[in-house]
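FAQ

Q: What does a record look like?
A: Structure on top, sequence underneath. For example:
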């Protein structure tokens, strides 16, 4: 089997990559230098040269903090290019191949902020909400082809991005708000992503929220 995974340089993506490799699954994991997800032409050129795959993981994402009144069009464009437009284009590229082979597994990485609003997350939340809508749309358009598409939405995970966007004091407050009183791990996320794209035979069109129960209590 062969998987294509975006955003593998660190964090969740790196953990997904390592877990696939342990299963002896070939992984195509382009770096930012190899594939510029902000440019549609670069995406098309790169994908045209990699051949067939069995698994697609749309993981790459950015989270630039901005609220509505000070959001620039460039902020919108950058975030949506990477968080939504590139997954859309990559998914579109492989769907005909998946249909031809009567097999495909797609996992889109969203966020709890795709279903819950938070100050300074207007662009990010909007882009991540769109990701799960894409998941459901793929399900609607691939009936009968043995293509399973799901969303995994992490909560507060111990990654560089979480610590970049939250101070140490804020992290401690976040932990107190989570019923399990701790941040999640990248391995917990990658475990679900890999299971959904390898062992899964019937879960389709679902959003798997992995947040330690955070959304239950806020």
């Amino acid at each position: 089997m062969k998987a294509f995974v975006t955003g593998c340089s660190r964090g969740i993506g790196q953990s997904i990559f390592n877990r696939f490799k342990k299963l002896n699954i070939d992984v195509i994991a382009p770096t930012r230098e190899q594939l510029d997800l902000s440019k549609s032409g670069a995406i098309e050129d790169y994908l045209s040269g990699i051949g067939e795959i069995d698994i697609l993981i749309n993981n790459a994402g950015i989270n630039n903090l901005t609220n509505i009144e000070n959001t620039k069009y460039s902020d919108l464009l950058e975030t949506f290019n990477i968080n939504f437009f590139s997954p859309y284009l990559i998914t579109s590229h492989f769907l005909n191949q998946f249909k031809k082979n009567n097999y495909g597994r797609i996992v889109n990485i969203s966020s709890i902020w795709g279903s819950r609003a938070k100050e300074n997350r207007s662009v990010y939340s909007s882009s991540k909400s769109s990701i799960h809508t894409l998941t459901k749309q793929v399900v609607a358009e691939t009936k009968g082809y043995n293509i399973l598409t799901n969303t995994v939405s992490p909560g507060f995970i111990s990654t560089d991005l979480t610590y970049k966007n939250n101070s140490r004091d804020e992290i401690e407050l976040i932990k107190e708000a989570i019923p399990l009183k701790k941040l999640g791990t990248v391995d917990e996320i990658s475990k679900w992503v890999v299971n959904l794209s390898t062992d899964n035979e019937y879960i389709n069109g679902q959003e798997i929220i992995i947040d330690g129960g955070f959304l239950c209590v806020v």
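Q: Is there anything notable about this one?
A: The chain has a mean pLDDT of 95.
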